[in-house]
Amino acid sequence: MTFRYIKKSYKYIGLMALMLMGQSCSDLLEEEVISNIGNDYINTPKGFEDAAKSAYSSLRNYYGTQQGITMTEFGTDLYATGADGGYKGFHFYDAQLQPTVDYLATIWDETYRGINVCNAVIERAPAATVSDAIKKARVAEMKFLRAHYYFLLMQQYGPVDLRLTETILPTKKTTRAPESEIYKQIIADLESALPDLEAKSKATDYGRATKPAAEHLLARVFLAKGNSTSKAADDYAKAATYASNVINNYTFKLLPDFASVFDQANQNHDEVVFAVQYTTDPLTNSTGNSLHLYFGMQYDVQAGMVRDILNGRPFKRMRPTKYCLETVFADRVNDSRYKKTFKDTWLSNNPGKFTNVFDNSKTEVTFKAGDTAIFIPGYEMPLAERAKKPYQVLVPSRYDEALFPVNRKFLDPLRPDRTYEPGSRDFMCFRLADTYLLLAEAQLLTGKVKEATDAINMVRRRAAFAGKAAAMEIKQADMNMEMLMEERGRELLGEQIRWMDLKRWGNLVERVQKYNPQAAPNVKAIHLLRPIPQTQIDRTEGGATAFPQNPGY
């Protein structure tokens, strides 16, 4: 069974707070009725359930969205910009990255809406006419979500306003809580939620938070805290414990084939620890998971091709860096992840004879329907060899901002037509391979190199081509942070995690300067935090004095 987020019924709970609204004081006097549901509805069994479900919906603002991918994959060592699209200041770290950029406020406002709904459910639970068991379960879920939201906010923006009670009336009194206080609350929420969350791999209603989801998040939180100014001596050990719990105490399994992790026909599989749900129902899917749009190259104007549902609508936003392709994915013999991450073949859906050929080894090509029209070999195939091929061959020397290897993880062939944007693919926030890699990182940082090697080899063996598992195993002497950073790149490419990985490791500036020529001239230490949205500062009593902007913006 799955449950659907209730997006409208309790939207008013989030809109109550001025800090969640980019409006002036005069706007507040012009009240707009957005719901006829009374304030006591939350006390009823259905109202309590609706409110709890609606708290999940803010995850859809971050995961599987253009603003989410912009703030997590742009400006890293693995992705560069493609030909089209905006918000490239997040990649170039230039003057475009200003406090007035709407994505900053969009993420901020919607995340605080989610937090306010969590606060409302937690505070009003005692009066709800539901069983004590349901109250405990829903409050635990809200604590998981509140912690999740605050962790995302703090990783992106640094110290933020820490609100733990429902904001019912507009207020302009906000402050930035210390990082240590926010970490303390995140951990307290998650640890107090553990006893009352479902202690199994899949929730009864698939999509709800579970105990292993909270433990996975705790592993991430303690790793981040251990690399922060709030660090404690046992942070890495605690991260290892929680990651081990997820691996050992439930029924999660690494799927035998890396490609099957992203099979849209089987999304609720044994590797998923926590996912944000999307659907094919346009009434409940809102803007959907739109990641299928952003990783595509311009295949649809090439010889033998037109846009279709299978190959996607290519917005040409995210282009893998040279480092990503040539170093991270250098092993194509033993490791299947290059082949299974990147789409390399396009079959002609527009047959005929063409002279507009990007492959300089030939002047024209002729295709029947279903013939190979484009092939990306992944290496510099010699000109003479390419000339023998009856199709266009895209080699690295011909890559540009419009033509490049395409990350296939998020393609969505279930869309009803070729222009349809709201995808239905679930977004895996936490999956078991990530848990193993978090465990390996925590063990490495506590000096347990053998254990870290064993953990990372679990992921590497799964990624091997048939018969190559032994060749994929690394030895203890090879286990170091560089290996770990590259392994996370190979396994989790594009999965909205890399920017926060680099931030956690403290090497964002170093790696961007080394591996991202577009961003290298501008990136500096201030970019470990995003600008606070100007709307937040403007609507705070006392302005920048009470709610100061991050340094450098």
TrEMBL record:
Residues 90-223 form the SusD-like N-terminal domain. It is found in: Cell outer membrane. The keyword Membrane applies. SUPFAM superfamilies: TPR-like. The keyword RNA-binding does not apply. Residues 1-26 form the signal peptide. InterPro entries: SusD-like_N, SusD_RagB_dom, TPR-like_helical_dom_sf. Gene3D superfamilies: 1.25.40.390. Its main location: membrane. It holds the Pfam family SusD-like_3. PROSITE patterns: PROKAR_LIPOPROTEIN. Coiled coil: none annotated. Keywords: Cell outer membrane, Membrane, Signal. Residues 297-553 form the RagB/SusD domain. Belongs to the SusD family. This is RagB/SusD family nutrient uptake outer membrane protein. It comes from Dyadobacter chenhuakuii.
